[in-house]
């Protein structure tokens, strides 16, 4: 079932989204040669605990995976792209790291992902990351009220095809709001004019991810980590987006950052955020930081 959110509820999701964006920025700045993935995991745990937020990944147990998931962030390296388990691994020069974080604050969830290159970047890796970012911007631009879900999927897929990357449609974007994964599913490729009509109040996570030379995936023995089946490099970008009367509002883009796609709806949300500044909740994460 799809639940449409009120403007007030969207604003509350944006509070969560700003926190998610800030933590991902901190992790992007921390990730460097020699930094252990477990350091990034514990930084995220600490920040979630301090904020009185709830991790959406902790105890996550879908039909796949040797669950429950006992981490607060997905950290995927090189040919791994989704649901990577944080592990005892020191980042190496040239590693391509994808970070996916979903958090709830006061019952409202936001979900975002970034890919960064550690140390010396290879040109082909930079190109892959840019492709996911460009596809995300194209999907956001297509998320206009009155359009169809297929318009978003087609926009994302068109960027992948322009870059020459194949597209997997098994894992893609999704609805988000009171929980991390809600209806509808948002494939990363599709046909314009098809699918669900985009209505103000719909909140979705758009997450283009591409592997350089395959659209096939393979699971690690851990049951969670998803890799490119041929071992090629991968990248992943994601934002939580609200459909409003004034256009798409990106809830997980830091308000201080320049936006590639900014409509009146996003400018209005920024003004509302500055005026509201809610008091942080008192709830805690409720998991050990050890």
Q: Can you summarize the main beta sheet?
A: 5 strands, antiparallel
Domains, number:
1
Helix content: 25-40%
Low-confidence stretches: 258-290
CATH architecture: Alpha-Beta Complex
Shape: globular
Provide mean pLDDT, rounded: 90
What's the β-strand tally? 14
Strand order of the largest sheet: 7-6-8-13-14
Q: Termini separation (Å)?
A: 38 Å
Topology:
Blueprint: H1 7-30, H2 37-51, E1 54-55, E2 74-77, E3 80-82, E4 96-105, E5 108-117, H3 123-142, H4 149-163, E6 173-175, E7 182-186, E8 203-206, E9 209-211, E10 217-219, E11 226-228, E12 234-236, E13 239-244, E14 247-250, H5 264-276
Antiparallel strand pairs: 1-4, 2-4, 3-11, 4-5, 6-7, 6-8, 8-13, 9-12, 10-11, 13-14
Describe the protein's architecture and organization.
This protein has one domain: Creatine Amidinohydrolase (Alpha-Beta Complex), CATH 3.90.230. 30% of the residues lie in helices and 22% in strands. The protein contains five helices and 14 strands. The strands form four sheets. It has a five-stranded antiparallel beta sheet, with helices on both faces. Strands 1, 2, 4 and 5 form a four-stranded antiparallel beta sheet that branches. Strands 3-11-10 form a three-stranded antiparallel beta sheet, with no helix packed on it. A hairpin with a 6-residue loop joins strand 6 and strand 7. The radius of gyration is 18 Å and the shape is globular. It starts with 6 loop residues before the first helix and ends in a 14-residue tail after the last helix.
């Amino acid at each position: 079932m799809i639940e449409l959110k009120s403007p007030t509820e969207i604003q509350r999701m944006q509070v969560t989204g700003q926190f998610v964006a800030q933590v991902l920025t901190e992790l992007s700045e921390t990730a460097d040669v020699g930094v252990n993935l477990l350091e990034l995991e514990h930084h995220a745990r600490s920040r979630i605990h301090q904020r009185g937020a709830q991790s959406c990944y902790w105890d996550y147990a879908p039909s796949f995976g040797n669950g429950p998931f006992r981490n607060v962030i997905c950290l995927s390296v090189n040919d791994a792209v989704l649901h990577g388990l944080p592990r005892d691994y020191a980042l190496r020069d040239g590693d391509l790291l994808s970070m996916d974080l979903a958090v709830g604050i006061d019952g409202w969830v936001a979900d975002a992902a970034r890919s960064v290159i550690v140390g010396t970047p290879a040109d082909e890796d930079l190109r892959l990351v840019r492709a996911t970012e460009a596809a995300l911007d194209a999907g956001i631009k297509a998320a206009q009220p009155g359009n169809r879900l297929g318009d978003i999927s087609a926009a994302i897929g068109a960027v992948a095809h322009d870059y020459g990357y194949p597209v997997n449609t098994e894992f893609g974007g999704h609805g988000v709001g009171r929980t991390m994964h809600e209806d509808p599913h948002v494939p990363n490729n599709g046909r314009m004019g098809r699918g669900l009509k985009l209505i103000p109040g719909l909140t979705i996570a758009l997450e283009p991810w591409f592997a350089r030379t395959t659209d096939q995936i393979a699971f690690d023995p851990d049951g969670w980590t998803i890799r490119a089946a041929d071992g090629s490099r991968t990248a992943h970008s994601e934002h939580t987006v609200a459909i409003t009367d004034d256009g798409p509002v990106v809830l997980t883009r830091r308000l201080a950052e320049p936006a590639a796609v900014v409509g009146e709806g996003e400018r209005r949300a920024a003004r509302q955020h500055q005026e509201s500044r809610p008091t942080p909740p008192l709830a805690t994460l409720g998991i050990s930081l050890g």
